[in-house]
């Protein structure tokens, strides 16, 4: 009882006495065990009840006698469960709604972006295919003519009012270009570089009236000079060049291939680049020379990717196509 | 050291609290489960009763509550496992209360200052109940679970019980006090 005194001493004196009196009066002699300690018999009974239930249920297996009780509780609880669920449902749905809203919005954004990029890809697919073919062609050209090429793209065409046929390409001195370099495309000779800036270069096309190229008939090895006409029709489907042979007695055959003759030190034109085919031949009665009209291989109206012939090993700001077809 | 007097209104109050706890535990708390582990509201009611009224009522309550939990629809284990677990929890909480300074004759306000023992009791009882349940499963050859998983579940249950206990235990104490203040009983 000293335990009791120490505990109740913190309470108001009168009340503590009241409580103590009350308890002694009510229980005093009846209470043999320590208060708060359960009766041993009851503990054993409860534990045994648990064990009995467990063994009953586990031995019963499929047809357990407790299945009826389970069923009963289930039946009784079902309406409570569904009631609670229907009350809670709207509250629990709120965060889910926000989550799904966010997820849907993210989905829409993602799909739109995907759609746009796919549309872009689809629109560019023809262009990409053509460019790939051009690069392939240019690589083949480099192998064929045996020179290293700096690839470049035509970014501007000189106006017809200037009466010169020039284009601008997107490679300049940084790419290793300098004036008097030969420019070719996958089809054949395009022209020569006449001026460079850091990032661009101006190319004089074959068809310019000022352009003179030394040409050689591939079959007979006869040499001559090709001159441009500077006509507007040259950008069309049938550009024409005039060939005047040095050996005035020889007559070129129709359909014969003309390649470049080659200049001193490869400038401005390297040797052996195909230019075009002989279209028609006529003789000038006045000075008794043979003239031929040449159709160039290159379609000047649709120039895009060209290659500038550079000495092998030139340092460039872009990949250089080496004569063996590799990129460096 | 007095076990609180279990008068008829108090018994009714505890029964009501138990039913509400069962509904909350089976229908509401699963929505707030942490990695699938649901806080044991029923255990907390049992612990609160044990702290307030001693081991014997808590054991009877634990046995009843556990039996109900065993028979609840979602449960598919051998009947008696939760009964045994909550029986142990009731015994432990009563024993701890008897050894500690918590007295049923203190007012709820004073007990709130002595929050450490109820909290420790909740933690201990949660651990013991989860462990007893898990061990009975091992004995009964339930699907074997790794010890690491078992410990993780027990630990998460302990933490969530302590957190929920901060709400439930004072609530049960206050209910008990309000139904029949000790001052009037005494």
Condensed summary:
By secondary structure, chain A is of the alpha+beta class.
Notes on the protein architecture:
- The complex is a heterodimer of chains A (328) and B (186).
- Chain A contains four helices and twelve strands.
- Chain A has 328 residues and is of the alpha+beta class.
- In chain A, the strands form two sheets. A six-stranded antiparallel barrel of chain A has the order 1-2-5-4-3-12.
- Residues 1-11 and 14-33 of chain A have low confidence and may be disordered.
- With 186 residues, chain B is mostly helical.
- Chain B contains eight helices and no strands.
- The model of chain B has no long low-confidence stretch (mean pLDDT 80).
- Classes of the chains: A alpha+beta (328), B mainly alpha (186).
- Chains A and B meet through helix 1, helix 2, helix 3 and helix 4 of A and helix 1, helix 3 and helix 4 of B.
Q: Can you summarize the main beta sheet of chain B? A: none
- Unreliable residue stretches of chain B: none
Computed CA radius of gyration of chain A, to the nearest angstrom:
50 Å
Sketch the topology of chain A as an H/E string, one letter per element: HHHHEEEEEEEEEEEE
Structural class of chain B, please?
mainly alpha
Instruction: Please count the helical segments of chain B.
Output: 8
Percentage of residues in strands of chain A: 15-25%
Any key phrases for this structure?
heterodimer, A: alpha+beta, 6-stranded antiparallel β-barrel, 6-stranded antiparallel barrel, 12 strands, 23% strand, B: 186 residues, mainly alpha
Which secondary structure elements does this structure contain, and how are they paired or packed?
The complex is a heterodimer of chains A (328) and B (186).
Chain A: H1 2-8, H2 13-26, H3 40-60, H4 67-145, E1 148-157, E2 166-169, E3 182-184, E4 189-196, E5 201-205, E6 212-217, E7 223-227, E8 241-245, E9 257-260, E10 274-284, E11 289-296, E12 305-310
Chain B: H1 8-28, H2 41-53, H3 55-71, H4 81-99, H5 108-113, H6 116-139, H7 147-179, H8 182-185
Helix pairs in contact in B: 1-2, 1-7, 2-3, 2-4, 2-6, 2-7, 3-4, 4-6, 6-7
């Amino acid at each position: 009882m000293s335990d009791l005194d120490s505990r109740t001493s913190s309470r108001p004196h009168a009340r503590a006495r009241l409580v103590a009196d009350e308890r002694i009066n009510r229980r005093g002699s009846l209470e043999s065990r320590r208060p708060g300690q359960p009766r041993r018999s009851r503990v054993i009974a409860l534990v045994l009840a648990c064990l009995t239930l467990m063994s009953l249920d586990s031995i019963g297996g499929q047809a357990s006698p407790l299945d009826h009780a389970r069923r009963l509780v289930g039946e009784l609880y079902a309406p409570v469960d569904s009631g609670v669920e229907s009350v809670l449902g709207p509250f629990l749905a709120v965060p889910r709604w926000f989550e799904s809203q966010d997820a849907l919005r993210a989905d829409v954004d993602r799909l739109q972006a995907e759609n746009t990029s796919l549309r872009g890809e689809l629109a560019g697919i023809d262009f990409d295919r053509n460019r790939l073919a051009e690069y392939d062609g240019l690589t083949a050209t480099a192998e064929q003519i045996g020179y290293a090429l700096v690839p470049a793209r035509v970014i501007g065409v000189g106006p017809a009012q200037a009466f010169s046929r020039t284009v601008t390409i997107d490679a300049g001195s940084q790419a290793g270009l300098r004036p008097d370099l030969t420019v070719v495309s996958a089809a054949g000779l395009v022209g020569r570089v006449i001026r460079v800036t850091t990032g661009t270069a101006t190319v004089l096309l074959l068809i310019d009236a000022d352009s003179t190229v030394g040409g050689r008939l591939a079959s007979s090895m006869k040499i001559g000079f090709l001159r441009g006409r500077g006509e507007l029709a040259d950008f069309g489907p049938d550009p024409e060049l005039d060939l005047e042979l040095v050996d005035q007695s020889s007559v070129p055959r129709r359909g014969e291939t003309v390649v470049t003759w080659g200049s001193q030190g490869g400038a401005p034109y390297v040797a052996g680049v195909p230019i075009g085919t002989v279209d028609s031949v006529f003789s000038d009665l006045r000075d008794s020379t043979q003239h031929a009209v040449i159709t160039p291989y290159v379609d000047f109206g649709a120039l895009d990717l060209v290659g500038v012939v550079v000495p092998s090993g030139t340092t460039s700001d872009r990949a250089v196509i080496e004569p063996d077809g590799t990129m460096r | 050291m007095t076990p609180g007097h279990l008068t008829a209104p108090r018994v009714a109050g505890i029964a009501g609290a138990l039913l509400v706890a069962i509904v909350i535990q089976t229908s509401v708390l699963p929505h707030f489960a942490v990695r699938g582990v649901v806080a044991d509201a029923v255990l907390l009611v049992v612990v609160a009763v044990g702290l307030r009224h001693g081991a014997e009522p808590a054991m009877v309550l634990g046995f009843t509550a556990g039996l109900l939990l065993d028979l609840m629809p979602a449960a598919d284990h051998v009947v008696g496992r939760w009964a045994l677990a909550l029986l142990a929890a009731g015994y432990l909480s009563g024993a701890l209360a008897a050894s500690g300074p918590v007295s049923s004759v203190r007012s709820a306000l004073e007990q709130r200052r002595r929050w450490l023992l109820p909290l420790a009791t909740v933690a201990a009882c949660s651990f013991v109940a989860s462990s007893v349940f898990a061990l009975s499963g091992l004995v009964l050859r339930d699907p074997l679970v790794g010890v690491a998983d078992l410990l993780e579940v027990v630990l998460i249950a302990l933490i969530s019980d302590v957190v929920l206990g901060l709400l439930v235990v004072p609530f049960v104490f206050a209910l008990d006090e309000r139904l029949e203040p000790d001052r009037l009983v005494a």
